[in-house]
Specification:
- The complex is a heterodimer of chains A (about 250) and B (about 240).
- Chain A has a domain of about 70 residues.
- Chain A has about 250 residues and is an alpha/beta fold.
- In chain A, a hairpin with a 2-residue loop joins strand 4 and strand 5.
- Chain A contains nine helices and ten strands.
- The mean pLDDT of chain A is about 90.
- In chain A, the strands form two sheets. Chain A has a six-stranded mixed β-sheet with strand order 6-7-8-3-9-10, sandwiched between helices. A four-stranded antiparallel β-sheet of chain A has the order 2-1-4-5, with helices on one face.
- Chain B is mainly α and about 240 residues long.
- Chain B has one domain: MetI-like fold.
- In chain B, about 75% of the residues lie in helices and about 0% in strands.
- In chain B, helix 3 packs antiparallel against helix 4.
- Chain B is elongated and about 80 Å long.
- The N and C termini of chain B lie far apart (about 85 Å).
- The chains are: A alpha/beta (about 250), B mainly alpha (about 240).
- Chains A and B meet through helix 2, strand 6, helix 3 and helix 5 of A and helix 5 and helix 6 of B.
- The structure holds adenosine-5'-triphosphate (ATP) and magnesium ion.
- Adenosine-5'-triphosphate binds next to strand 2 and helix 1 of chain A.
Chain lengths: ~250, ~240
């Protein structure tokens, strides 16, 4: 459903992404692992055009785009089919939880308010936040804010959701509620691409894993095999270090 | 006896002139302030947005405007527009001339306040707006400006109070506002101390009302975010 070939991205003279390929099928949950600074965030941002890739081809839903030469209209088209969940939530602080979820529907998609609110309430219900629909972001805990952000992503009915370390800004005791919501979405067949340091999530929820290092995909494969017997030495070391931390 | 006579005369002049100063205040100073400030706000928001959004060419123009206006005295600006422009065949009535100068002048200063406030809204919210399909204009209008104006409210209130007092400079281009009316009464009664203190008191009254309005406004704006409007502990780990 999403297919990327030869994606490249440099910041000035710093080449951050060197020729990345990616295939995501419908219903896939793909975890992206890798050390800090390997380009995971930049990759995800390129896929949603928050960052402009220099080159590569991008196929979404059967339609192919040339990266580095995508028009505004094409970007808008792609964004209608995708959603993004940020590390630090990025809820609109001047709006309640419900308004956060309905804003895109009403302003960008010109949906009627009552219709948008119906969808918004369903989305909030799905992440267990319907009771807090009228709360402003600053009145919510980090975990609750992230769940609202996920509801905001769901409301636009995307084909795929990109998550950039959705639990990294949370206190340890709050990561569970967010991961549970994501596990539930995975169970319902939502297609997700998740940058994460949560090994347990990658191991048990995702069906495929991609390991990035210094701007290249070092290894990728089915989650099961990947964790059992990673081929690359770098990957083994990385996993061992993470597991030590988790104990 | 003399003492008694003096204080009685002072009280009479004070009471007599109070209304004569207050009336031009209500008829000229207040409207001049209110109209100029409204235009200034529009100019400020547009100028700030142009710079914030990095609009080519227009951005250079905006910087140039702010540079020129902030770098020249408002008295000079008043004289250029009222006494200078007629040489080019542009003759303006005193009041409109004053409105034009105060709007443009205040707009330049306020644009910097608004621009700083726009910059202080977390960038991530703009990105989130793009991700749900909103356009730049929609994001500005619905998300960034509402938060920015809340941040800019106290400094802008400050500017409004400053402007109210600054309008006394319009006396120089024959706008018969409070200060000029006072000067006229002084010329008749020869009581400069009493009358200039009196007009100062009336300015103080107006500013007190504005300050009270500011406090009320700030209270009402506290509906969202008592604490600073940053979220999470932004940035990468
Ligand atoms: N806007 C930018 N300008 C210049 N360099 C950047 C920019 N954004 C990222 N980089 C650089 O690109 C590289 C990859 O960064 P990126 O944030 O994608 O890594 P990451 O894998 O997400 O790391 P982390 O696990 O710490 O989040 C880093 O060297 C970073 O310094
Ligand atoms: Mg990152």
């Amino acid at each position: 459903m999403l297919r990327v070939r030869g994606l490249r991205k440099s910041f000035g003279s710093l080449e951050v992404l060197k020729n990345i390929d990616l295939d995501v099928n419908k219903g896939d949950v793909v975890a992206i692992l890798g050390p800090s600074g390997s380009g995971k965030t930049t990759f995800l941002r390129c896929l949603n055009f928050l960052e402009t890739a220099d080159a590569g081809s991008y196929t979404l839903d059967g339609k192919t785009y040339t990266l580095g030469r995508t028009s505004r209209k094409e970007i808008a088209e792609i964004r209608r089919k995708t959603a993004f969940v940020f590390q630090n939530f990025n809820l609109f602080s001047n709006m309640t939880a419900l308004q956060n979820v309905t804003e895109g529907l009403i302003t960008a998609r010109k949906m009627k308010r009552y219709q948008a609110e119906e969808i918004g309430r369903m989305a909030l219900d799905k992440v267990g936040m319907s009771e807090r629909a009228g709360y402003y972001p600053h009145q919510l805990s980090g975990g609750q804010q992230q769940r609202v952000a996920i509801a905001r992503a769901l409301a636009t009915n995307p084909e795929i959701i990109f998550f950039d370390e959705p639990t990294s800004a949370l206190d340890p005791e709050l990561t569970g509620e967010v991961l549970n919501v994501m596990r539930q979405l995975a169970g319902e067949g939502m297609t997700m691409l998740v940058v994460t340091h949560e090994i347990a999530f990658a191991r048990h929820v995702s069906n495929r894993v991609i390991f990035m290092d210094e701007g290249v995909v070092l290894e990728s494969g089915e989650s099961r095999g990947f964790f059992e017997a990673p081929g690359e030495k770098r990957v083994r070391e990385f996993l061992r270090a993470l597991e030590k931390r988790d104990v | 006896m003399l003492d008694n006579y003096l204080s009685e005369r002072w009280i009479n002049i004070f009471i007599d002139s109070f209304w004569k100063i207050l009336l031009p205040g209500l008829k000229l100073t207040v409207p001049l302030t209110a109209v100029s400030f409204s235009f200034a706000l529009v100019i400020a928001v547009v100028t700030a947005l142009i710079q914030f959004g990095n609009v080519r060419v227009l951005k250079q123009l905006a910087r140039f405007y702010v540079w020129v206006i902030r770098g020249t005295p408002i008295l000079v600006q008043l004289f250029v527009v009222f006494y200078g422009l007629p040489s080019l065949g542009i003759v303006l009535e005193p009041f409109p001339a004053a409105v034009i100068v105060f709007s443009i002048n205040e707009g330049a200063y306020a644009s910097e306040t608004v621009r700083a406030a726009l910059e202080s809204v977390p960038k991530g919210q703009i990105e989130a707006g793009y991700c749900v399909g909103m356009s730049w204009m929609q994001i500005m209008w619905r998300i960034v400006l509402p938060q920015a104006m809340r941040i800019a409210f106290p400094p802008l209130s400050n500017s409004l109070i400053g402007l109210l007092k600054e309008t006394s400079l319009a006396a120089n281009i024959t706008v018969a506002e409070m200060f000029m009316s006072t000067q006229r009464i002084v010329a008749r009664t020869y009581e400069p101390l009493l009358l200039y203190l009196e007009v100062g008191l009336i300015y103080l009254m107006f500013c007190t009302i504005l300050t009270a309005l500011q406090h009320m406004g700030e209270k009402r704006l506290q509906t969202y975010g008592g604490r600073k409007m940053r979220q999470g502990d932004a940035g990468h780990r």
